[in-house]
Amino acid sequence: MPRKLPPPRLYKYQPFNAQSLANLKNASIWFSAPTAFNDPFDCALPIVDPARLTENDFQRALEYVKGRRTMTAELIAEMCPDGKPSQRFREVILKSIDSIYSARRKLQTTGRGVACFSAKPLDITMWSHYRGFCLEFDTSIEPFSKAFHVRYSETFPYVNPVDLLVEPDHDDSENELLVALVLTKAPCWNYEEEWRVMHMEPSTLFTYDYRALTGIYFGAAMPYAHKEILSLVLHGAPTTAYEVLQDDQGFALHAKVVTYQPFEYR
User: Fold this and answer.
1) What is the pLDDT, as a whole number, of residue 15?
2) Higher pLDDT, 211 or 236
3) Which residues does 133 contact at the CB level (< 8 Å), separation at least 6?
4) What is the DSSP string of 88-117?
5) pLDDT of 210 higher than 90
């Protein structure tokens, strides 16, 4: 399946605090380790079940071993005398799969950092979570251009363990383990329309090109002083400021471009 490209803009909701202000000033984004996420299912799904392996799966593993020559022809003949996987061969394969899966799972969940974004800036639920501001990024600029979309599923995805053995590891939308572990969430989260950017170093700040920050949205409940502080932090930056306003006809939000001037002391 071809990789789904991110929309022209992605958005990151932020609380208003000292750390978010420092990150904004330094044009930095925090990449969390997946194990630090609040959702207990996030990046922790039971996606591999060796009990579901079929005869065809073990036969595929045998053909792979023959092609890779990870076992000698004599050993293969001894373990599979009739050309079919024996119980001993199955045990060896299951042990290899367990080792490979453990290593790759550790890489996906503790060996990378993840930054989360939304495809929409005016979601009422998202604003109720953060009650701060929202940053708008241009996805034609790295690392935002490399964002992966999150899939939402009623059931746990399943990764055939033999695929982990016979297919090389890679970071793209065809990596079943990556999609299942890092890019799959429960449907209750689909209002986020989430996209994720990954970095091969967890729990770290990543500095982006300041030109990628095309907009900042001030929450509808944000005090004027906070809006002024944010404007001062971004003074001189090519970033458009928006004020989020509540609609007076229904449950909706809309935004308008605004300019805040520094307070004049007398």
Assistant:
1) 93
2) 211
3) 13, 14, 16, 20, 216, 217, 218, 219, 222, 226, 230
4) HHHHHHHHHHHHHHHHHHHHHHHSSEEEEE
5) yes
What does the pLDDT average to over 221-232?
A: 91
Residues 123-139 as b or e (16 or more Cβ within 10 Å = b): beebbeeeebbbbbbbb
Backbone φ, ψ for residue 232 (5° rounding): -70, -40
User: What is the distance between the alpha carbons of residues 122 and 157, in angstroms, rounded to a whole number?
Assistant: 30
Length, in residues, of the chain: 266
For residue 28, the one-letter residue type is S
Instruction: Give Cα separations from 37 to 32, 68, 191 (angstroms).
Output: 8, 39, 17
What's the distance, Cα to Cα, between the start and end of the chain in Å? 63
How far apart CA 221 and CA 133 sit, in angstroms, is 10
116-121-124 Cα angle (round to 5): 100
Structure confidence by residue, pLDDT tens digits, 21-46? 999 999 999 998 877 777 777 777 77
42, 113, 204, 219 from 33: Cα distances, Å: 11, 5, 9, 27
- Judging by DSSP bridges, how do beta strands 213-218 and 240-246 pair with one another? parallel
Q: Is the dihedral of CA 51, 57, 63, 67 positive or negative?
A: negative
Long-range Cβ contact pairs of 153-159 (< 8 A, separation 24 or more): 153/184, 153/185, 153/186, 153/187, 154/186, 154/187, 156/45, 156/46, 156/47, 157/45, 157/47, 157/184, 158/47, 158/48, 158/49, 158/52, 159/47, 159/48
pLDDT value of position 120: 94
